[in-house]
Each structure stands twice: as C-alpha cells, then as structure tokens.
Design goal:
This is N-acetyltransferase domain-containing protein. 34% of the residues lie in helices and 26% in strands. By secondary structure, it is α+β, with helices and mostly antiparallel strands. The protein has one domain (4-189): Aminopeptidase (3-Layer(aba) Sandwich). It is globular.
Length: 198
Amino acid sequence: MPFTLRDVREHELDSVLALNNAAGASILPMDAARLRFFWEHAEYFRVAEQDGLITGFLIALSQDAPHDSPNFRWFRERDGRFLYIDRIVIARQRRGGGRGRAFYADVQSFAEVRWPLLCCEVFLQSGNDPALLFHGSFGFREVGQQTMPGTDIRASMLQKELASYPWVAQTYGSRLPDVPWLRARALPGRAQALATGT
C-alpha cells in the first residue's frame, strides 16, 4: 500500500517522539515538551502514513516562531521571512522509499506561496554526504556554517529561494484562495495566544 502525507494529529505525538528518538546521531533527540512546542507552533507538521503506521515526519516553523534553536536563530539574524525545516525523520526500515523526496516536494509546495526562502541545516559529520547531496538536488545552497553552541557539531546552513513566491505575493498578497491544497495548519499555540491575549 502506498504512503500518504498528512497533518499530524495530537494523539500521534507519542509515535512521532519515539520515531525521532530512534533516528540515530544525525537527528537531535527531543523530549515530550519540545514536541509539544512543535505541535503548538509549527506551520508545517506532517507525517507519512502507511498501513496505519507513521513512517516519517517533517516539522517546519516560520521566522515568527518563539524557537530557541541556535540554527533557527542563525537564520533569523540574517533573513527576513522564511520557513525553517527543523527536522525530517524517516523510519529506518522505510528509508530509500521516496518519503524524503515526497516531504521536500510537499513542504516546498506549502512554503512557496507564503515565504521567499526555505531554510535548513545539515550536520557536517562523517558519512553525511548523502544528506548534502539530497539537499543540493533540491536546489539548496550553503550560505554559511556554524558550530552549535556548547557542542562540537558543525552544521552547513542551507537555503533555497522559492521562485514562485514573488509572483504569488504580488498577485494575492496574504489573501490566498480558499481551496483545500492551500489551507494552512491551524496552530494550537496561536489559538491559545489569541484566547488569552498573550
């Protein structure tokens, strides 16, 4: 059965957490509080589902998210509006089946009508050349490097200009047509802030 990409559901967060923390050294571990932050603030938080199981996910945040990641802050200090891919994880037994490429095509389609830039980083560690090549094949280019504070992890900071954005922004501004494929994720954190006035 083929896999599908869709928005994550709240009751699936434990499965997402387990998948993240089983991913290996190329993905930073996280706890339930960090995952809850993503649930509340990520503009893009989608999972790959196959045969009723979550086999991958991708999380991305806008420049306005109250994110404390040093790599996110690196982009915020240099760029205006962007969507930042915080992490993509594919279950080990499902790697090589096209999920990564499907996620990147999907997140680009989501982003290019809203932001001029798509940003991410790849850790510069031995054996990570396939990840750099993967991003290069999607048109990302390195715009700098940084060593994450308090670690010896060096990251290649990658960025892609989204060619469709200027035309969409000029033609539609912030009022995109109300059609299913353009709908944004309802952010629980934003709804909570509006309700409490914070």
